[in-house]
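Help needed: design a sequence for this.
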């Protein structure tokens, strides 16, 4: 309990708003997660788990129930993504990335839209968030992005971009100014990540125990 109290005490102020240690360290981990994901480093998953635990504390203190719930599910999704990347490396010596098919894209979009509506209604009905639908959008969008990331699909960067565009004003309005500032860095890193993964999806990757594997998998009609 003392640790939780310390995590939610201000480390400093930004634009007149206190920045708790949980928000500070959680976002540092979040930035590290994006950098590691860009490099296809499997350590991105445990770092994301640690960051989500810290951001859960920050969200609770800011009264963002949807964002707090998001962190819990992100931890579960990160464990799943960790196992998926581990299997890919064991099978081919590399995390093989690809473009999604049109069917996969439509499914991801459908889950994002329907999931946002349903979860936003739940948050609004229970009074668990002061801004339920944007809060729900970030929650569902993060899950969709993490699923796509776990499947090593290039489009996961687009989903994170869409989440960030809503996350910036929501975090600032909720008093998490530092989180809002970090989202701006995410925007740049997401663009860099997309360009890097897009280029790598057209390469031929050679596994140490297999012949060369062609991973030039463009969208299927």
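Sure. Designed sequence:
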């Amino acid at each position: 309990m003392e640790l939780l109290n310390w995590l939610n005490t201000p480390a400093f102020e930004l634009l007149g708003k206190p920045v708790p240690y949980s928000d500070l360290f959680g976002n540092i981990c979040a930035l590290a997660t994006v950098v590691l994901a860009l490099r296809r480093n499997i350590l991105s998953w445990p770092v994301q788990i640690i960051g989500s635990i810290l951001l859960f504390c920050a969200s609770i203190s800011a009264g963002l129930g949807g964002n707090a719930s998001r962190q819990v599910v992100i931890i579960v999704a990160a464990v799943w993504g960790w196992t998926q990347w581990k299997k890919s490396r064991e099978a081919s010596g590399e995390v093989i990335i690809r473009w999604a098919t049109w069917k996969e894209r439509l499914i991801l979009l459908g889950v994002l839209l329907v999931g946002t509506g349903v979860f936003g209604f739940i948050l609004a009905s229970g009074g668990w968030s002061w801004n339920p639908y944007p809060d729900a959008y970030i929650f569902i969008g993060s899950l969709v992005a993490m699923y796509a990331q776990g499947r090593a699909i290039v489009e996961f960067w687009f989903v994170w971009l869409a989440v960030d565009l809503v996350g910036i004003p929501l975090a600032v309005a909720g008093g998490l100014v530092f989180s809002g500032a970090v989202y701006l860095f995410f925007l740049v890193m997401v663009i860099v990540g997309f360009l890097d993964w897009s280029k790598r999806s057209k390469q031929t990757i050679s596994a140490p125990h297999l012949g060369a594997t062609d991973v030039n998998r463009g969208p299927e009609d």
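The chain is about 70% helix and 5% strand.
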